[in-house]
Design brief:
Layout (H helix, E strand, L loop, with lengths): L1 H12 L1 E8 L2 H4 L9 E8 L14 E4 L4 E6 H9 L3 H7 L4 E4 L3 H12 L2 H19 L6 H23 L4 H4 L11 H16 L5 H20 L11 H11 L3
Parallel strand pairs: 2-4
Antiparallel strand pairs: 1-2, 1-5, 3-4
Helix pairs in contact: 6-7, 6-10, 7-9, 7-10
C-alpha cells in the first residue's frame, strides 16, 4: 500500500526515495484505529543536473494526504545529520521501514551513533517535555491534553535514557522503556498506563496527570545537572561527502 504510493511520488517529483520509515504512534506503540500514518523519507533527484543549476533543487516535500508525509533531499538530510537533528534520529531508528534502498538505514544509523551530540539531543527532549507540560498546565484535561502528556512523558524518559546509557537512545525511542524501568519504574509504569488509556479511548484522571507533571518538573533540573558528561558530537563531513558522491554516482 505505502510502497506503491512511494513509487507514485517518485514519478510525480522525479526523485528516487532511498529511505522511508514510520515515526508516529504506529511505530512507538500508541496507535488506535484512527491513528494517521506518519511517513518520513529521504530522496535524491534523478536528474543530477538539478544539483548544478541556478535554481536550487527542491529540498523538502510535504504531503498531508493520504498520509502525513514529509521528505528531505539527501543534501538537507545530511546537513541536519551534521547538526545532530533529533527528527532524523527518530526516522533512522524506526522499527517500521517502508523503503531501505541498498541498506541505507545501516549506514545512516552508524553515522548517527558515531557523530551525534548527546548534549543537543538531551536539550531537545527536555525542551519538548517543557513545552508540552506548559500547554497542559492549569487547563481542563482533555483527550488532546492527554496526547500532549504522552509526548511530555516520552521526552522525559528519552532524556533519562540518554543520561543513563550515555549514547543515542536508539533502543528507547520505540519501546515501552523497560530497559530503564529500574531507574524510574514509576514514570515508566505511568507512561505505559497512558498508552493503554489512549488505545482504549479513555482519559486518565486530572489528579494523576498533575502528579506526574510535578514529578517531571522536579527532576528536570537534575537531568540538566548530569548533562556535563555528555558527548558534544563530532564532524563527519568527509564521510558524508563520500556517501553523497556514491549515491549520485559521481
Amino acid at each position: 500500500m505505502i510502497e506503491s504510493w512511494l513509487r507514485e511520488l517518485e514519478e510525480a517529483y522525479g526523485i528516487e526515495i532511498l529511505f522511508a520509515s514510520e515515526t508516529g504512534s504506529r511505530a512507538w506503540g500508541g496507535a488506535t484505529n484512527h491513528s494517521d500514518y506518519d511517513v518520513r523519507f529521504i530522496y535524491k533527484h534523478r536528474d543530477v543536473k538539478s544539483y548544478l543549476s541556478l535554481r536550487k533543487a527542491q529540498e523538502t516535500i510535504d504531503i498531508p494526504a493520504p498520509y502525513d508525509a514529509q521528505g528531505w533531499d539527501l543534501y538537507k538530510a545530511f546537513h541536519l545529520l551534521q547538526k545532530s537533528n533529533p527528527g532524523l534520529c527518530e526516522w533512522a531508528f524506526s522499527p517500521i521501514l517502508y523503503r531501505d534502498r541498498q541498506h541505507f538505514s545501516i549506514r545512516l544509523r552508524r553515522y548517527i551513533r558515531e557523530s551525534y551530540s548527546l548534549l543537543s539531543l538531551l536539550h531537545h527532549y527536555i525542551y519538548l517535555m517543557t513545552r508540552n507540560l506548559k500547554d497542559i498546565h492549569d487547563k481542563a484535561f482533555t483527550e488532546k491534553k492527554q496526547k500532549q502528556l504522552i509526548q511530555a512523558v516520552r521526552a522525559f524518559l528519552l532524556s533519562k535514557a540518554i543520561i543513563v546509557e550515555q549514547k543515542v537512545p536508539e533502543d528507547a525511542l520505540y519501546s515501552s522503556f523497560d530497559a530503564i524501568s529500574s531507574k524510574d519504574s514509576l514514570t515508566v509504569s505511568f507512561y505505559q498506563k497512558l498508552l493503554r488509556a489512549k488505545m482504549r479511548g479513555e482519559i486518565i484522571s486530572a489528579a494523576d496527570a498533575e502528579e506526574i507533571t510535578v514529578r517531571m518538573e522536579q527532576e528536570k533540573q537534575l537531568l540538566l545537572e548530569h548533562s556535563h558528561s555528555l558527548s558534544k558530537g563530532k564532524s563527519i563531513e568527509n564521510e558524508l561527502n563520500q556517501w553523497i558522491w556514491e549515491l549520485l554516482c559521481l
